[in-house]
Design the sequence.
């Protein structure tokens, strides 16, 4: 089979899980700013570890140490470096250079979401390098802990083709149009509270959902080529990643429903 056939086979295998995410009940449960803030408190961990996954790919596919030597394919180096540039140093609403994670934190602060959890997590992890300690210190939601752990299992595997697969098929284009409609409705009621979050979503569609998704797909094809075992491993990793995302959304949903009781 050629790479296109392998891609189609993978996409067929993961389609039911993708549909489950796109039609997840968490979106319809978000009716006000408090609900959205709970969702963001879970989602921000996915935004953060997305950046870690991205940098792991860059470390594996390019030379990030000194002395420098050419690593792998120049085409693949170009693909990952261009994605990193867009994700790590994009622009906010005022035209300031920021990573998508930093823009997301700005959105949380504007809406009144709890940023202490993710900030305590990242600061503790930076100081200690201990995920268990960081989760405990920040009281990270269990669903978020499991999601991050799944991502870092793939990162620590050291296998670039698995990292590329979950980056390409397990993280992009998973926020449905219905969610954007809900955000637009909330924005009408609280225009000064979620304008940054709305910008983040729009930027996600513009950059991640279009240009970056094409680059990521090409990168995965370059890494897996026509190696059947690589594609089977990539499929299994993507399925695990999507199931982890469903569990993350389940956790957010359960907390939103509990709050409404």
Sequence:
């Amino acid at each position: 089979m050629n790479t296109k056939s392998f891609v189609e086979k993978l996409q067929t295998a993961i389609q039911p899980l993708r549909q489950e995410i796109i039609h997840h009940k968490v979106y319809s449960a978000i009716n006000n700013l408090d609900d959205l803030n709970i969702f963001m408190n879970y989602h921000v961990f996915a935004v953060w570890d997305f950046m870690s996954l991205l940098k792991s790919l860059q470390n594996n596919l390019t030379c990030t140490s000194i002395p420098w030597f050419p690593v792998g394919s120049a085409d693949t180096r170009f693909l990952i470096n261009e994605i990193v540039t867009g994700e790590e140093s994009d622009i906010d609403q005022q035209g300031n250079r920021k990573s998508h994670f930093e823009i997301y934190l700005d959105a949380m602060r504007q809406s009144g979401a709890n940023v202490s959890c993710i900030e305590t997590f990242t600061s503790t992890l930076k100081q200690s390098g201990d995920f268990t300690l960081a989760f405990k210190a920040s009281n990270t939601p269990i669903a978020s802990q499991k999601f991050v752990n799944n991502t870092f299992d793939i990162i620590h595997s050291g296998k670039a083709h698995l990292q590329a697969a979950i980056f390409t098929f397990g993280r992009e284009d998973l926020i449905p149009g219905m969610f954007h409609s809900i955000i637009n409705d909330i924005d009408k009621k609280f225009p000064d509270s979620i304008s940054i979050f709305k910008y983040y979503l729009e930027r996600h569609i513009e950059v991640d959902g279009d240009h970056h998704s094409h680059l990521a797909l090409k990168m995965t094809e370059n890494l897996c080529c026509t190696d059947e075992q690589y594609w089977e491993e990539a499929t299994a990793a993507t399925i695990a990643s999507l199931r982890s995302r469903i569990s993350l959304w389940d956790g957010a949903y359960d907390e939103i429903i509990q709050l409404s009781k």
Remarks:
- Residues 228-260 form the longest helix (33 residues).
- The first strand starts at residue 90 and ends at 91.
- Strands lie at 90-91, 97-98.
